[in-house]
Amino acid sequence: NVKWRVALPEAGNSSPVISGDRIFLTQPNTEKKRRGLLCLDRKSGKTLWEKSVEYEAKERTHRTNHFCSSSPATDGKRVIVAYGSAGIYCYSLDGRELWRRDLGAIDHVWGYGSSPLIHEDLCIHYHGPGKGAALIALDKKTGKIVWRFDEPIWKPGKRTDGFRGQSDGGIIGAFSTPIIVKAAGRDELIMSFPMAMKAFDPKTGKELWSCEGLNPLVYTSPVHHKGMLVAMGGYYGNSIGVRTGGKGNVTGKRLWQEIRHHGGIGTGVAKDGHLYVQDAGGIAYCIDFASGATKWKARLPGRGNSWGSLMLAGDLIYALSQTGNTTVFKASPEQFESLALNELEERTNSSIAVADGDLFIRTHEALWRIATPSRN
Questions:
Q1: What is the layout of strands, in order, in the sheet containing 17-19?
Q2: Per-residue model confidence (pLDDT) at position 102
Q3: CA distance 134 to 374
Q4: How far apart are CA 358 and CA 323, in angstroms?
Q5: What is the mean pLDDT of residues 94-102?
Q6: How much is the pLDDT for 157?
């Protein structure tokens, strides 16, 4: 059911974003020191336009975390992309630059990965990790900064929460993308920082509540389900569960905390009171959302670990591995049941994107569109 496969000039970790008949994908060009955005036609895969910016200064990153690892965001009228130290840019759907904003340099040994979020008239973006990291809201029409929350500096000391590891820049930092949830008649902007999950008023940036118990390294985004939130630390870090709608420091009211839990790099999905996640080693877990208890764990079939987030479609969960295997399994707390295994045989660190029944997968070599034979 492959409709088309379009070769890409260089590896990248971002995922595609689809709006109508257009696909937006960030794309690095290391040789020319450029960071760019591709716009492709959904039906044919043909490149409609390409924009890029040059960034000459050195910026640290991990060898597996390519520049342009942030995915774009679009509201159907504009598309916004974060290029790390090169700034954040907004384009019209036909490729005209509408505005740009320099948010300062990012300096972290593992680079960056958080993606922008569009909410009403704002573009909200976590500009980090590292020194000067901040959660920033910009006017989506002008790029003007509306509010800014500077990430608290965590100073390593004597640990009592089970965390073990180096206390250097390589293991402290958030790569999470914030989410918006409805709670008690208000919107809450939820972000997983090192050591704590926090909620803000998205319009003003006012901190509403905070829940401690994470560890210094966070990859995944928070997951919301029926008035509850779960945040997970990276690489078997700490995980916490908390209810939305709180006030002040709600650490003492959290639902649960698990030490050295099942967190990985990709974000999980929730279904019928349960959280489904996969760790970086290719193990899938079913977790009771309200208690944090593990119902089952199973190694996914096929080859390879995973950096991508899970995708839920009805009662089916799609899990993409780094080697290009997609496992489809049932969203059931009773037991792990694998239903299908599909192989692209190309490496990927991305997540599956879905639009109108089509699957879009970005590998290090190409962008794929997979659809039923009846679709154009």
A1: 17-19, 22-29, 34-41, 47-54
A2: 97
A3: 46
A4: 21
A5: 98
A6: 55
